[in-house]
Amino acid sequence: MNLMQKQTSEYIPFTPELLAPAGSLDKLKVAISYGADAVYLAGLKFGLRSAADNFTYEELKEGVEFAHSRKKAVYVVLNGFLHDKDLELLPPFVDFLDRLKVNAVIVSDIGVMEIVKKHSSIDIHVSTQASCVNDESAKLWKRYGATRVVVGREVSVAEAGKIKKEAQIEVEMFVHGSMCMAYSGNCTISNFTQGRDSNRGGCAHSCRFEYSIDFKNDEEKKRAFFMSSKDLNGIKVLPDYIKHEIDSIKVEGRMKSHLYAGTISKVYSQALDYYKKNQSLLSDDLEDWAKELQKVTHRSYAPVNLVDKAGRDTIFNERETTKEGEYIMVGTVVESVKDSHIVVQVRNAFNIGDKLEILPFEGDVINITMDKIENLVGESIERTKPSTLVKMPYSNGVEENNILRKKING
Ligand code: SF4
After folding, report:
1. Helix/strand/coil (H, E, C) string of 253-288?
2. Where does ligand 1 bind, in terms of residues with CB under 6 Å?
3. pLDDT value, residue 3
4. Which of 167, 184, 276, 289 could form a disulfide with 152 if both were Cys (CB 3.0 to 4.6 A apart)?
5. Which domains are delineated in the chain?
């Protein structure tokens, strides 16, 4: 039973929890405001994304308070493979998380799990890094004290449903984001080529590089990116996640942008809310949500292993570039004064005449054409600058923290 269902006695059909990445405190607020039921994040140590803006103690406290005040859950990743000297630093951090009442920690190492059990009563989720791909493994993790497994990215939705049923344990499964060519991250290419340990937070994405091999012909040359995977996109498989009662659908991407966190959270939460109300998902609506997902920067999409085993057509055989139809974030609304103006923190410059879109927390996108921009003392400006505040005419329904976006080359 997921958090939302624990907190209400009124009947709602089984609906998975939407779990979004929070690479920073700002992104946590964005993901939750745009509809995520839970977020996962890391402190300054012990996670697998050392390049993300991981949370300080103060940020963790603020993030947990923000989430809990909105009845949302926070899971903290402790899923690096820790050596003995790393382990010494873990107990005080676990004590701190216990006092904060985080909803769970995500672990991949059984030694880390032992320390969490000794020093806290926090729920334990087993990370996808542990490659749990069968129900015997899930049963064992449950006996050790885990309350949930994040299944390996190699299993299908149907297999995940069976693991849940046989092991009687909550199951979490990726629905969207970057994939890894190795078995759920157990890879050391980055260690050998860059001196960065992928299993202790340092992955340099070596699988995305272009490798030079002595190809015999043009056809073979097309395989130069043979280790780079397309991105996972499970929106059209959502009915299967519901049918197999997957407890939590997880979005990858703690290092991705605010626009990514907001857009993906909004699309999947809209789809889940629609299902809660109507107890079905129509293919036309799934198609519309799929179009919206095309607007964030991504490699080509594929369902990867969700239905059938991934094969050669899952390889992203090209250099990463932005594509027609993708958007960039140009700013965030920091103040909205009804019927008067909004104040926007500019992230990427925009000009008079530009066509922008405001992404409300719920409902349709608001289209605006910039015909008036002012600085804070009321002087008209033609072109904004990043990291400045500007005033723009009020648009109906715009709220604080809404994201403004602009089509690339639009
Ligand atoms: S280099 Fe690629 S395959 Fe290896 S861990 Fe990093 S993302 Fe995964």
Report:
1. CCCCCHHHHHHHHHHHHHHHHHHHHHCCCCHHHHHH
2. 180-182, 185, 187, 189-190, 198, 203, 205-207
3. 44
4. 184
5. 3-205+229-308 (3.20.20.70), 327-407 (2.40.30.10)
